Amino acid sequence: MKTRISKAIFPVAGMGTRFLPATKSVPKEIMTLVDRPLIQYAIDEARAAGIKEFIFVTTRGKSALEDYFDQAPELESALRKAGKDDLLEILKTTNMDSGAIAYIRQQRALGLGHAVWCAHRLIGNEPFAVMLPDDVIAAETPCLQQMVEAHAETGGCMVAAMEVPPSKASSYGILDIKDDMGSMVSVKGMVEKPPAGTAPSNLAVIGRYILTPRVMNNLNQIKPSAGGEIQLTDAIAMEVTEGRPVYGYRFRGERFDCGSKAGFLQATVAFGLARPDLRDEFSGYLQQLLSMRDAAQ
Ligand code: UTP
């Protein structure tokens, strides 16, 4: 059953309208959580899971993303001359091996499923990961690594899943559970953004997937949904319909929805407080802020 997952697709061709006007010229994935862009968190997580090939599905106006992973000879030589070895070390995390990174264009934003499909020629016949950089996950063992380890035992398709309150279910893809094995569930259906009160469970899919190449064939066949988008959820649900295994994996960790303003702010506070170089000053400031608010009430 052991399959090596060496390729990951990063769909980053969305318009990021929830962050306008910033995203008029700054790709959402380049927005900074403390001092690293969102995409860096996703790349670090992918590397920890053993990913060797990084496929970005981009679009117009995303060149800052390509520059971010390029060499910066002038900057590097200036830092070297100034003896700033610590900063050179930090820059190393943005370096990619030659040939390890590929960019594919999604010409029109036809949905997440379509974005993933755009990479089909680079995937071939192997299982692959999909990572949405908006979902930032703080975890002792990085989320995709947990999933790769679990997937080595199960094969099939696997989606990261987390419990959400019933009132929030209509914002997510929701799993219809066949068997609940604790950290993992087997799935008998999936529904994207179910209308209020119709969700089959409270287990929501978030932006980490391990998929079989058949999902690419399914994406080829499915029709756009009501919103005109090709949904990845529908292509995974087709696997279930055709009798192939799909699992939900309850990852250990905390997920932040950095595609929303509130989630981004929460992540900024959590990651700021987790940083040894910032913790004392930042937590002192937050405490002061809260006590001022309490005093004013
Ligand atoms: P979102 O639904 O969060 O959309 O996409 P968005 O456009 O990025 O942001 P808002 O809602 O306008 O603020 C989820 C993921 O799917 C990618 C996005 O880049 C994001 O990583 N995506 C979405 C594409 O690559 N192409 C699409 O056509 C749609």
Topology:
Layout: E1 7-11, E2 32-33, E3 36-37, H1 38-48, E4 53-58, H2 63-68, H3 73-81, H4 85-92, E5 101-105, H5 112-117, H6 120-123, E6 128-131, E7 135-138, H7 143-154, E8 157-163, E9 173-180, E10 184-192, E11 203-211, H8 214-221, H9 232-241, E12 246-250, E13 254-257, H10 261-273, H11 279-296
Parallel strand pairs: 1-4, 1-6, 4-5, 8-12
Antiparallel strand pairs: 2-3, 6-11, 7-13, 8-11, 9-10, 9-11, 10-12
Helix pairs in contact: 8-9
This protein binds uridine 5'-triphosphate (UTP).
Short description:
The chain has 297 residues and is α/β, with parallel strands linked by helices. The protein contains eleven helices and 13 strands.
How would you describe this structure to a colleague?
There is one protein chain. The protein starts with 6 loop residues before the first strand and ends with a helix. The longest helix is centred in the last third of the chain and has 18 residues, at 279-296. Strand 9 and strand 10 (184-192) form a beta hairpin. The chain contains 11 helices and 13 strands. The protein has helices spanning 38-48, 63-68, 73-81, 85-92, 112-117, 120-123, 143-154, 214-221, 232-241, 261-273, 279-296, and strands at residues 7-11, 32-33, 36-37, 53-58, 101-105, 128-131, 135-138, 157-163, 173-180, 184-192, 203-211, 246-250, 254-257. The protein has 297 residues and is of the alpha/beta class. It has one domain (7-259): Spore Coat Polysaccharide Biosynthesis Protein SpsA, Chain A (Alpha-Beta Complex). The chain has a 5-stranded mixed barrel. Helix 8 (214-221) packs across helix 9. The mean pLDDT is 93. Uridine 5'-triphosphate binds at residues 11-18, 28, 57, 106, 109-112, 114-115, 132, 134, 259.
